[in-house]
Structures are given as C-alpha cells and as structure tokens.
Amino acid sequence: MDRSAPPTARFSSANATLSPLEQRLRQVVVRGRVLTSPAQLAGYDADGLGYKRFRPDAVAIPADLDELLELVRAAATWDVPVILRGAGTSLAGGPVAAQGGLIVHTSSLRQIRQIDPDGLWCEVECGVTLKQLEDALRPHSLFYPPDPSSGIVCTLGGNVAMNAGGAHCFRHGVTGNYVLGVEVILPDGSVHRFGGPAGGTGPWQLDWKRLMVGSEGTLGTFTRFWLRLLPLPAKAWTFRATFADLATAEAAIHALVAHVACPVAIELMDPRFVQLVENSPMAVGLPTDSFVLIAEIDGPETWVDHHVESVAQAIRQAGATDLSWSDDADDRDRLWKARKVAGGLMGQLSPDFVVQDAVIPKSALAATLDLIYRESDAAGISVINVFHAGDGNLHPNFLFDSRRPEQLAAIQQINKRLMRWVIEVGGTLSGEHGIGNDKTEYMPLVFDDDALRLQHAIPALFNPSHQWNPLKVFSHRRFQPSIEPTAKEPTAKEPTAAETTNTEPTSPEHTATASPPRRFSHFCDLVDAVVCVSADVTPAELAEAIGTPAFRCPLVENSSVPLRAQIAAGPYAAASSRFGPWCDNVIGMNWRLPSGGIVRLGERVVKSTTGYDLLRFFLHSGDRFGEPVDYVLRLRPALPLHATYRLIGTPVQLDQAIRFLRRSPWGLWFDRIDDIHDSLPTTPDNAADPAPLNNPQAPNQHSHQPIRRELQLVANVADRQTTIHTDFVDRLALDHGLTQERLIEPNLPPLPLPDRILKVTPDKATQWADHLVNQQPSRCHAQPLTGAILQKLPPSATPQPLSKHHQTQLQSQGATHHTRHATPSQQVQANSPESTWQTVLQTAFPSAHP
Questions:
Q1: How many helices (H) and strands (E) does the chain have?
Q2: Nearest CA-CA partner of 463 in 81, 118, 801
Q3: What is the pLDDT of residues 384-428, one digit of tens each?
Q4: Helix pair 18-28, 65-75: axis angle to 10 deg
Q5: Which of 204, 231, 258 is the last residue of a domain?
Q6: Which of 250, 259, 568, 848 could form a disulfide with 450 if both were Cys (CB 3.0 to 4.6 A apart)?
Q7: Based on the structure, what is the number of domains in the chain?
C-alpha cells in the first residue's frame, strides 16, 4: 500500500503532537464528533482509489454550518493540512490526507434549505446527497441533471468540487452547468457568496464561482450551493443495441451524436464488462460476446415518440446485430443499474482497481481502446471498458493487486503511456473524476509553462500556503506553514512545468527542458461537433468553416457582427433559452495576455475537469486579463427551417402561458422562448429592428409610448417535424386564450446586439423586463426559462443606471448586470477583496512570454 511520508513529525499521528490537535478540536467541535482512534481513522484513509492510503491525524464532523465555520477558522491557525470530505466516492485520490492532517467530514450538513419550483432553483448544504435531492425534487416534477454512478451516496459538495458528470451529461452537461452560486469559507476565514439563485455574479464584477467549481477542495471550504433545476421529461425511450465489433459500435455512436433527437445519453460497454454484469445479480440478459450500446432520448411525449424509429434506424444502419428499446420504467431502470454498477463489481473482482476518465476526440476511439487492450494484455493486467461514449469520456478499469510490485509498476507504466497518447490525439486527462493526487504528474502534458503559471496563480491567490488539500491537482502544492494565508501580494515565482515534475517520480514526459507551447489550430471536427475559428470571424465565415448545413452554432446570430463582438455583448444570447450561456458553448480559447503572450485555455473536447476553469473565468472578464484570439465552439445538429410563433394576449394570459412553459418539458425544445416587452417608438430610428409588436398593453410612464408585449417561440424544424411543434403551440394558445401568428423560413432575421443584459431568476424575468422598458424606451427579450433579459435601445442611446434599490435587489439574488457600453476595467471597487485578487492575478498573468 502506498503511504506518503509526512513532511515533518508534527503531522504524524504517531507522535505526541496529536494530543494537542485533539484537544483543540474538542474545544471547537462540541455538538459534532471528533475521531482519533486508529479504527475510526482507517475509514478515511482512501477514497474510491483504494490502493493509495493516507492516514489522517484526526477527523472532525461538525454538527452544522455554524460549527463548520468555527472549525475552519480555528484550523487555519493550526499547523496542519485541512482536507474537506463528503462521501469519499471520488476516484482520483481527492479527499484524502496525502500530507497527513485533519479531515473535515461534512456528512451532517444535509439540509435542503429551499426549493423554488417557479424560479427553477434550490439551495442546499454541501453534505446533501444526490439521491436526497432527487427524492425532494420529484414531487415538484423537477430534476437536477448531473447523475454520477455513485449518486445514491455521493454529496453535492463533492460533486461541485470535482465538477462531476454522469451518463446523462452528454446533452444536459456536467455539474458546472448547473451551479448558480457557491458559498465558500476561504482559508483566511472570510466567508463569500459567489453568485446565488439568479446564477450571475451578484456584487462581484468577475465570475469567481467559475474558479471554485472543480477546484477539488484546494481553494476553500464549500458550505452551500444554489443549483439550477429543470422540468422532468414527460417520457424517455432507452435503446439497447449489440455490436459484433468496435468499428460498428463506433459508427452507431457517431450517428447518434449527429441525430436531431439529441440523445441524452450514449454509453458503451465492452464484452468483458458485459460478461462481468451477466455473472452478477445485476444480469439483464445481455449477450456476453458483444459490445453493448445504451442510448436514451427523452423530452415531451410526442417529440420522443416521433423520433423513436429514426433513432432505431440510425443504430441498425451502423451494423447492430440486435436492437431493442423500451419506455417501461422498470425495464429502463434495470438496464441503467447494470450500467452503473461498474465500481461495485470491480471491487468484488479484484483486490485493487484504477479507473481513468480521460476524454478523447471520438475519431480516436478505436485506436485508443486498441492501445488500452494491447498494453494491458501485454502486462498481464485485466482491463474492462465501460464509458460515456457520446462525449468520448473513457473509463478503462484496470484490475490488479497493489501488493505485487510488478503489477503496481505495470499499472503506472500503462497510465503514463495512455495519458501521453490522450494528449497527442487532442484529448484531456479528466472529464469528471478530477486530478486529485492520481494524475498530478501528467499535468505538464496538458499545460505548457505559461499556462502552468496561470494555473498556479489560482491556488496561490486564495490558499498560498496550500494548507487546504495539499498535493492535489498540482504536485508542487505541498503545505508550507511559513507562508501566511493571505492574498495581499503575489507569491514567489511559480515553478515551470519541468520544475513542477521534480516533486514527482521521473517519467518519459518529464524532462529538464521547458514544455513547448500548446495552441489550438483552426479545425472543424464534425464527428465531435466542434470547430476552432478566429475570434474575428463573421457568421458567414463561421458557416464556411463548418462546411455543412447539418451543424450550427445556435448562439451565433446570422448578422455581419464578428464573433468576438457577439460574445463580448454579454453572457447570454437569443438561443440561450435552449443551449445555455456562451460559457456552455465555448469550450476552448487561444488567449492573448496583456504581455502579448498567448496561452491555450480549455480543450477541443466538450468535457474537461483538468485544472482550474480559467476558460469560463476569462470569457466575460472584459479587457482585464487580455483578449481572445481564437475560439473552440461546440456545434449542434441543424435542421433546414425555423418556425416562429408569435402569441398575443392580455398580460394575465401571457403570464399564465409563460408559467406553464417554464414547468413544461417542451420548454427545452424551442431554440428561443422570449417574453418580449417593447416601448420603442415606431419611427425610422428602429426600422432595422425586428417588426414592431402590435398589441399595446399600457403606456410607458416616461414617454407615454404604449408598451407592446408578446410571447415568441422559435423552433429549428424539418418539414415533417413542423407539426409536432405547431400542435403544441396550438394547444398552448387555446388553453390560455392567445391568438397566434406563424412563420416558417430558412433563416431567422438577425437580432441586434443587446445594449444591456440582466440575469435574474426565471420567475422574475417578466417583472424586470417590464421595469426596464418603463424606465427607458427599449425592447426587452426576457427568457422565462433562464432568467436572462436582453435589452435593445435606440441607436446612440446607452442604458440608464439602475437605482440603488434595484441594484441591491439584483445583488442579493446573485444576478448579473452587464452592458457592452461599460469599461470593465473601471468597474471593480477599490480596496475591496476583489480589487486585491484582481491585482494579484494581473501581476501573475503577464509573466507569460510574448
């Protein structure tokens, strides 16, 4: 068993300094529990990566958030590492005492504080389990999409720390797509809330929660979260297909990724895993000599029923030897349980196992699996593959006995070769399990020296002594108690990629020379549905780069405005109602720092938990840290037509229809759902805007111009599908007494850039849109499902400031107030924590070479 030696005697549980630690703990943790006996501590010396064991000096279980705060503030003054731990189900050596010290177990913090069905959000404490939240949401016909296989026991604190995913994240996205706000106790003892129910920045100018999600407990202590919720789908069909070989299974995966039904999950199990399942109590009658694919579509009943046969046909045409599908809940549940039982079965089959979760371009799938099988078989190591095929997130399970040195050495060599290969083909180290202490030595493969400097600056900002979860994410992060945990000035120069590797065993990847620069080159990969283009391309040039009408980037408006300006206009676009904000659609960037140096941020694959999320943090940071040079964009399947439905009625009728849409599974199948409020004068000045609305509701209190309002829905459709959306809209209009107009056309008229964007809770979007058009002649598109409001003013006008009262309202909800007319670098309040943090980062980041 691997047991890292503590750096000094004071961290060892075998010497006399443990008694003072225990005494201190018992003075602070009164209502909770303190564990110090060897038998008690043995349950905390590993996570799901069981063969690497690190015995903590003590474990504290605070009774509630108040006691947690008191404990964290006290522990910051003690000379011990602090490690936060939820259920300990992670698979990368994350919540373990790699340097000894104190584990803080948050299992008592399991209160669901609020569920807001109309606002589509909830507030939870960090120890709430995924299963607990799922059960609480079901009576409201809502769900929280991330679904890791350990969902019955894993905690939301751990999920946020690792940016967990799951089988159904192919369409829905990972944890970071659903975190609206994070409350964190920083190592200096200060408590901050980044975001909130509205999912914006609140009183902060920068989106600091983006750095917290996926930070693996290295930046502070999570206390509670605000999470985005979705309406439960009305129906789901689950497909089970068998394939004689990997080539035909791979063809099916590619066909499903491009299918307009937008499968929610695409999973693949190799014959070795199928045999393992069929020899267990979880057997479901799968053929043991075939690759088995599980795919699922869900949504409104008429939508999924319409697509069943076309999905089945795509799988058949790929070469399936057997195919069945079911909408029976029990049948589907049994199949998914068989898929998700992997970890438990591996533990029964072998003394030890390691599961990697690298993400690769799907075009490299066959070659990568061949490498895994070849290397493992040559070393005499059993390997079983079961993984998220839709996004290329591999899960090879290597079975071995760590008590046999030759097997342990073989595992290490296989992992090194695999990780080098993954990076060579354009992948990344982790899609959902994180880095922990299992993959730190491979980080210089991902980040060149300049990118490493940026990555290292983040823990140096909040946790410069590395007291919180040391030796995780980056190997140089060893606890240094002599450094004060404050961010008043930049730390000493961070090590280069080569220097970083000196704290790890040497390997072929680690040399004495600097890492070569890594940049994205322009490309278009229709198998992975991603494209890399210049930040200055026009929409027409982007379409040319994609090269086919079968795919689109739906957030890009069909106008002459360059991509850079469209993204800089604000976090949300017209199609964000269905496809989320820009940060869910931009997956990589080449970024020019103020020094002139260019660094690569993010990946060319759609899923990554490798390092701190500087991509999302930088994307809407204005000009503070530089500018984008190139974007890597996620593409979506496209149909040839757009159907626009304009619904008109009284305010009460429109409000009722919007409330229904917000809770309906249909809301996720329209590109745009806009509650439009218009007080612009109908003059030639706004002739370039979309057609003026024609249903006056009430006079504008400032200009006496009538406020016109309508509900507008836009769907991307093919001829044969148009009736599906039309039938739904007809029923919506009839049920709520609305009149409608319908237009079907190949291209939508472009919307002008918004002058201001607000992001509030979805149930408050109508109220805020009404306020904005009353305050100033303008047109607002309020999105009832996201809470985003896009405000367009007359030419040459700028947004009027909000009152102090309204600003306070927005900040208290964690809302966003963004205008493209402001100068971002002038917005941060002087002498505030944010000003200090920004100064530290601006000092660290320009160190990259021009």
A1: 26, 34
A2: 81
A3: 999 999 999 999 999 999 999 999 999 999 999 999 999 999 999
A4: 140
A5: 231
A6: 848
A7: 5
